[in-house]
């Protein structure tokens, strides 16, 4: 589904026309930044609006999840992480893991004007921003419905000892069944520690990371992008890599719509395609299943993800690969003990039977 090679076949007339197109992007988190950068790189006239100079939170991603144009983004650290299971087993993840240097990454990718001011994205029109189309990339905090599942974490930055430079993607030792510790070096002297709950319906009032996993459907009049367009994997909370990978394809679809209109032959936006919608549905089923099983099985399900071969794990953890999600689910189930298999199968069947469905836009 994703084109990581940056190869496109566009007519000369299209390339000339695209330079006349004007795009306004509201929100310059990782999703809005990626889309605006790729639109500017393709020749569109781009302007963005966001009062913050760059993302304030620590952002990290596996390098093999990124498209070619983003693989060398400035990093604070690049490591190979490990997972510690609840019984003390150590699993090494044979994939490069990058903690982005937010300030330098934003400086590198901001090749277009950014207005450091708030706009009312719910009411502003393209004409008011001097644009042909507006992309809303503000995230989903305002689309959260109390009682719906969220991923939460509390951050603590501490001094790193000589023995603490190991990147620990998940550590279930000495943690309650639905929690894990995440530890990653930021540089030679500092370490980020997070106490993370992968999915809960009862989040604490204070949390440094708050990711709605099944946000309400976007009802605005603009084109959503990033988390606002359902890029958050309901089962894992991942969205950054998807936002980077789908930027070029989204710019192509927007450009084609501006050039040819939005009739029946107009290209679909990437998240409107059946493969993406199906994968989000399957991932939402996994989430509902996860929330209905007891903590020991909850923990075992998550730990089993890291027994998958690296390429399957890569596709399982992000959105857009329903075949990989189905295979990953089957392999996780196969690793369980007999009683856990029965319990998980019943929970999954119950989640599927209790009214989970896709609407026309692909929102479970």
Main beta sheet strand tally, sense and closure: 7 strands, mixed
How many extended strands? Answer: 15
Rg (C-alpha, Å): 21 Å
Helix count?
A: 10
Share of helix, binned: 25-40%
- Terminal CA distance reads 21 Å
Query: What class do helices, strands and sheet pairing give?
Result: alpha/beta
Uncertain parts = 1-16, 358-363
Could you report the average pLDDT, rounded to the nearest whole number? 87
What string, H for helix and E for strand, traces the elements in order? HEHEEEEEEHEEEEEEEEHHHHHHH
Question: Can you describe what's shown?
Answer:
The protein is α/β, with parallel strands linked by helices. It is 31% helix and 20% strand. The protein is built from ten helices and 15 strands. Strands 6-5-11-12-13-10-14 form a seven-stranded mixed beta sheet. The protein is globular, with a radius of gyration of 21 Å.
List keywords for this structure.
5-stranded parallel beta sheet, globular, 10 helices, disordered N terminus, 364 residues, alpha/beta
């Amino acid at each position: 589904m994703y084109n990581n090679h940056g190869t496109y076949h566009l007519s000369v007339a299209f390339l000339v026309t695209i330079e006349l197109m004007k795009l306004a992007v509201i929100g310059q988190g990782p999703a809005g930044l990626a889309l605006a950068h790729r639109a500017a790189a393709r020749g569109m006239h781009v302007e963005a609006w966001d009062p913050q100079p760059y993302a304030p939170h620590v952002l990290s991603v596996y390098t093999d999840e990124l498209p070619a144009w983003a693989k060398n983004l400035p990093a604070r650290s690049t490591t190979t992480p490990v997972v510690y299971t609840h019984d003390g087993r150590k699993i090494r993840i044979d994939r490069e893991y990058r903690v982005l240097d937010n300030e330098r990454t934003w400086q590198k990718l901001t090749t277009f004007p950014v207005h450091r001011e708030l706009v009312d994205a719910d009411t502003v029109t393209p004409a008011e921003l001097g644009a042909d189309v507006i992309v809303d990339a503000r995230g989903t905090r305002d689309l959260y419905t109390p009682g719906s599942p969220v991923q939460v974490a509390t951050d603590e930055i501490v001094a790193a000892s000589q023995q603490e430079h190991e990147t620990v993607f998940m550590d279930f030792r000495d943690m309650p069944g639905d929690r894990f510790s995440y530890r990653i070096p930021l540089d030679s002297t500092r370490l980020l520690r997070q106490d993370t709950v992968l999915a809960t319906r009862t989040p604490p009032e204070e949390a440094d990371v708050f990711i709605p996993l099944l946000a309400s459907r976007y009802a605005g009049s603009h084109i959503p992008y990033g988390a606002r367009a359902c890029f958050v994997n309901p089962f894992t909370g991942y969205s950054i890599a998807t936002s980077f990978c789908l930027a070029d394809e989204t710019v192509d679809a927007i450009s084609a719509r501006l050039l040819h209109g939005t009739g029946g032959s107009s290209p679909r936006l990437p998240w409107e395609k059946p493969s993406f919608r199906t994968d989000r549905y399957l991932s939402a089923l996994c989430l509902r299943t996860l929330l209905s099983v007891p903590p020991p099985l909850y923990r075992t399900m998550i730990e089993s993800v890291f027994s998958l071969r690296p390429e399957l794990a890569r596709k399982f953890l992000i959105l857009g690969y329903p075949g990989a999600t189905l295979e990953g689910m089957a392999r996780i189930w196969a690793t369980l003990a007999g009683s856990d298999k029965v319990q998980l199968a019943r929970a999954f069947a119950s989640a599927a039977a209790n009214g989970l469905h896709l609407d026309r836009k692909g929102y479970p």
